[in-house]
């Protein structure tokens, strides 16, 4: 198979695949596939109407579940089971297991049906938090009272604030927030050994802005910037994952405004602009504080993910 880097010129066909398959999982986002090539050296093969992806982590190659550009269930001339069998036979190395990662429950069941001796490992840290857009936009009902109160406290303290949708006019504001956010988190990241990850993330965000026209055209890249008294305070970047799902890739708020409810206001203001039925706010990475924060918004469900060794 002729593996090639997952470059920006593949965005059109990746987005067509995402829309045709009604993807919910963030790892199948066309924007994520392109952006995270910089972190995971991800590669892609397109054979006929089938897309295969792989990436590298901890020195090992990991594979994604293959999908048909026209929809695995509707538009595929060849059954996915046949495609998987041929793929495994072509990529297996004697004595080593083939690793499929970020696999949904349905995809896991397909792999286990084909390979009953496969080793399945749940990866709850990779599960996607899926929310009804109207819930995040309206924060209606008793269960969201604490969120509404938090936002009201923020609005009372910072009376001069405004939210702008992402555009070329506020790219510099996004860059400023990202630079300052990284400075604020450098000491802790050094202690945790994650500084290089945050530095790569900064490059990814800047790359997304530099290619805004392409990403906006093909996958509806959007987002927003929150200003406090004219000072850039928080931003988010998102894209259309599929017809029903908007995927929020990045959310950053400076610490001075974070503790007063900056993230809550950013989340709420952006949700009011989203047209899709659902919002995917991605995984919690196994970080307890992040897990609690995502659960506090009462997701419609958490999309399970698995690693499958064949």
Task: Please give a handful of descriptors for the protein shown.
310 residues, alpha+beta, Aminopeptidase, five-stranded antiparallel sheet, 25% strand
Write up what this structure looks like.
The protein is α+β, with helices and mostly antiparallel strands and 310 residues long. The protein folds into 2 domains: 4-126, Gcn5-related N-acetyltransferase (GNAT) (Aminopeptidase, 3-Layer(aba) Sandwich); 128-282, Gcn5-related N-acetyltransferase (GNAT) (Aminopeptidase, 3-Layer(aba) Sandwich). The chain is built from 13 helices and 15 strands. The chain has a 7-stranded mixed beta sheet with strand order 9-10-11-12-13-8-14, with helices on both faces. A hairpin with a 2-residue loop joins strand 10 (222-228) and strand 11. The mean pLDDT is 95.
Order of secondary-structure elements? EHHHEEEEHEHEEHHEHHHEEEHHEHEE
Taking pLDDT < 50 over at least 5 consecutive residues as the criterion, the unreliable ranges are none
- Count of individual beta strands: 15
How many structural units, i.e. domains? 2
Helix residue percentage: 40-55%
Strand content: 25-35%
Main beta sheet strand tally, sense and closure: 7 strands, mixed
Secondary structure class reads alpha+beta
Query: What is the name of the CATH architecture of the largest domain?
Result: 3-Layer(aba) Sandwich
Annotation field: number of helices: 13
- What strand order characterises the main sheet? 9-10-11-12-13-8-14
- If you average the pLDDT, what whole number results? 95
- The first-level CATH class of the largest domain is given as Alpha Beta
CATH H-level superfamily of the largest domain: Gcn5-related N-acetyltransferase (GNAT)
Shape: globular
Radius of gyration: 20 Å
Cα-to-Cα separation, first versus last residue: 19 Å
CATH names the topology of the largest domain as: Aminopeptidase
